[in-house]
Design brief:
By secondary structure, this protein is α/β, with parallel strands linked by helices. It has 9 helices and 15 strands. InterPro entries: ADH-like_C, ADH-like_N, ER, GroES-like_sf, NAD(P)-bd_dom_sf, Trans-enoyl_RdTase-like.
C-alpha cells in the first residue's frame, strides 16, 4: 500500500506492507480521506517519529476486516471515522495511507448523510473535546446540571466540537474568536461570542457573567492561558489542550489545572476509554439528526500534498477549517 512514512525525520511517499489485523480489537479500514492535526506537524518537526512510522491520525473510510473481539460483528462494509495512536511509534499504522487500523471502541459509524471528507475531521478533535468536558480529571461535567462554560478558541477544531458537546448536554456556553464568524459559532452552540483581540475581552466576559468556574482552553498559548486565568473564579477548573500544561505555572492556587492527553483513549478500561467510547457511539445519532455537525473540511489534494498542508500550519494560515487529503490521489512528496 502507499503511505506517508517518516525517514530520517522527513516524510516520503512509499510502498509499504498493507496494514493487517494483528490484535483481536483491530479494525482494518480502507481509507478514503485523512485529516491533518497540529500534532501531526509537531511530531514530525520535533523529530519524534521513528524511521518507518506511518504519519497521520484522523481518517474516514470503509471497514474491510475485523478482529475476533470486535463487538459489532456486522461492521465490515460500514463507513467509520477513527484515529490512529499517532504519537506511539509502535502503533501498527497511521492515517496517511491506503489502509489504517482502528481500535474497537475508538470509532464512530457514519450515517449516509455525512460524507467521508467531512467525517475525517471528527475523531481526534471530537474525543479531545469529550475528554476535556466530561472526564473526572478535567472539567468533570458529566451528569452535572447546567453550568456556564468558557471555551477559549471556539473556532478551533477542538473548540467547535466543545461548543456543540457542551450545548448538547444543556450547558451555557461562552466562547472567543476573532469576530469573523460569530453567527456560525452561535449556531454550533455558543450563547455569546467575544472577540479575543479586544484588549478588554476579559473585563467584558466578567461584566456579563462574573468570574467563570469552568474554562476549556482549546488554544493553549501563553496569551490564551493568561486570559483564561484572569477570567477564572475562585475556585475554578481550567483544562488545556497543551499536554504539558505550558503557561500555567503562575496561575493562582485557586485554579485547578488539568491537561488533555487524547491518546489515553487507547488505554483499555480507563475512564478516558469508556467515556470516549460512549460519546463516539452517541455521535452517530447526533450526526444523523444534525445535532452534531462536522468541522469544515478543506481538501488540499492527495497524499503528495502533505508537506504543503504542514507548511500552512507552520505559517499559522489555517483558520476555521480542517485540512483533509484524498487518499489514493497521489504523486510525489
Amino acid at each position: 500500500m502507499l503511505a506517508v512514512v517518516s525517514e530520517n525525520h522527513k516524510l516520503y511517499l512509499r510502498n509499504t506492507p498493507k496494514a493487517k489485523i494483528a490484535a483481536p480489537n483491530d479494525i482494518l479500514v480502507k481509507v478514503d480521506y485523512a485529516a491533518q492535526n497540529p500534532i501531526d506537524v509537531i511530531l514530525n518537526d520535533n523529530k519524534m517519529l521513528k524511521d518507518g512510522k506511518i504519519s497521520g491520525n484522523d481518517f474516514a473510510g470503509t471497514v474491510v476486516a475485523i478482529g475476533s473481539s470486535v463487538r459489532d460483528r456486522t461492521l465490515v462494509g460500514k463507513r467509520i471515522a477513527s484515529f490512529a495512536d499517532g504519537h506511539n511509534n509502535d502503533y501498527p499504522s497511521g492515517s496517511f495511507a491506503d489502509y489504517a487500523i482502528a481500535k474497537d471502541g475508538i470509532y464512530t459509524v457514519l450515517p449516509d448523510s455525512v460524507s467521508s471528507v467531512e467525517a475525517a475531521t471528527i475523531p481526534l478533535a471530537y474525543v479531545t473535546a469529550v475528554h476535556g468536558l466530561y472526564t473526572s480529571a478535567r472539567l468533570d461535567l458529566e451528569g452535572k446540571p447546567a453550568q456556564t462554560i468558557l471555551v477559549w478558541g471556539g473556532n478551533s477544531s477542538v473548540g467547535r466540537y466543545a461548543l456543540q458537546l457542551a450545548k448538547l448536554n444543556g450547558h451555557h456556553v461562552l466562547t472567543t474568536a476573532n469576530g469573523g464568524n460569530n453567527e456560525e459559532l452561535i449556531k454550533l452552540g455558543a450563547d455569546k461570542v467575544y472577540n479575543y483581540r479586544d484588549t478588554d475581552v476579559v473585563d467584558k466576559i466578567k461584566a456579563d457573567y462574573g468570574p467563570i468556574k469552568y474554562i476549556f482552553d482549546a488554544i493553549g498559548t501563553a496569551s490564551s492561558a493568561s486570559a483564561c486565568a484572569k477570567s477564572a473564579a475562585d475556585p475554578s477548573h481550567y483544562t488545556t489542550v497543551r499536554p504539558d500544561a505550558a503557561h500555567t505555572k503562575e496561575f493562582p492556587s485557586y485554579i485547578t489545572v488539568s491537561t488533555i492527553i487524547v491518546y489515553q483513549v487507547f488505554f483499555t478500561d480507563t475512564e478516558e476509554a469508556v467515556v470516549g467510547d460512549k460519546y463516539l457511539t452517541d455521535a452517530y445519532t447526533w450526526l444523523k439528526s444534525k445535532k452534531l455537525v462536522c468541522n469544515v473540511p478543506k481538501l488540499v489534494g492527495g497524499l503528495d500534498k502533505i508537506e504543503e498542508g504542514y507548511q500552512l500550519h507552520r505559517k499559522y494560515q489555517i483558520k476555521g477549517v480542517k485540512l483533509v487529503y484524498r487518499v489514493g490521489e497521489v504523486g510525489r512528496l
